[in-house]
Specification:
Order of helices and strands: HHEEEEEEEEEEEEEEEE
Number of helices: 2
CATH class of the largest domain: Mainly Beta
Structural class: mainly beta
Low-confidence stretches: 1-26
Strand content: over 45%
Strand order of the largest sheet: 2-5-6-7-8-9-10-11-12-13-15-16
CATH superfamily of the largest domain: monomeric porin ompg
Mean pLDDT: 84
Distance between the termini: 20 Å
Largest sheet: 12 strands, antiparallel, barrel
Shape: globular
């Protein structure tokens, strides 16, 4: 992706009639900019099922999930995440652009997520979000541009007996409002340059008065960061 960006910029400059000298100077600036971009840890994992915001996405089937990302010294970052859905050969790809800054002990983020579904394009959707985080926890508000729905996550975590324990309280502002409570427990195990993370998560999905309650979901997973 970075090579493509540099190529397109070079073509645009030449079509604009810039001199060879100025193009060369611009290329140097671009190289300097790209020098501040680095890849983040990549992840790949096997999950007993894919549960998103308390709802079963893989119909109870196992799911392979992973991601790769890049970040810039300015606070900008990009990430591509995927998950297999277990039915109809559908794979979900989430493309995220984020900008994060810190002020004192607080961290502020804003960005967008484009959810794209291979073999099911009608489900594609763009979501905007804003987040604030502290060492005590974080709050993130999402806005679905298609359905004009909001989703709020409030999360916090602790380390207990060398285990990472995290809890998330979520609220959906959709037509059928509901609340989801998720608790996850994981442990990082370093093996050479890899980090193995076995985990399990429990989702308690509370439906609204006019919507049946989604069955609670337990997810077991083993993830590898490299």
């Amino acid at each position: 992706m970075i090579k493509k960006i540099k190529y397109m910029l070079g073509v645009s400059l030449m079509l604009g009639g810039m001199t060879a000298g100025s193009v060369s100077a611009q290329a140097v600036d671009m190289d300097s900019l790209m020098a501040d971009v680095e890849a983040t840890d990549s992840n790949i994992g096997l999950y007993s099922q894919y549960v998103w915001r308390g709802q079963r996405q893989s119909l109870g089937a196992m799911s392979v999930q992973g991601d790769v990302g890049w970040e810039h010294d300015s606070g900008a970052s990009a990430n591509v995440w995927f998950a297999t859905l277990g039915a109809g050969n559908v794979t979900e790809f989430d493309y995220t652009l984020d900008y994060t800054q810190e002020i004192g002990e607080l961290s502020y983020s804003g960005g967008m997520i484009y959810y794209a579904y291979h073999n099911n394009n009608v489900a594609n959707v763009l979501e905007l979000y804003a987040s604030v985080a502290h060492e005590l926890g974080s709050a993130t508000l999402y806005y679905d541009t298609d359905a004009s729905n909001i989703w709020l996550d409030i999360s916090s975590g602790i380390e207990l007996a060398e285990l990472a324990v995290e809890g998330t309280l979520s609220y959906s502002g959709a037509v059928s409002e509901f609340v989801n409570i998720a608790v996850s427990v994981s442990k990082d195990i370093e093996v050479d340059d890899l980090v193995l993370s076995p985990s399990f998560a429990y989702n308690l999905h509370l439906g609204s008065l006019d919507t049946p309650v989604t069955p609670d979901a337990l997810v077991f997973a083993i993830n590898v960061a490299y």
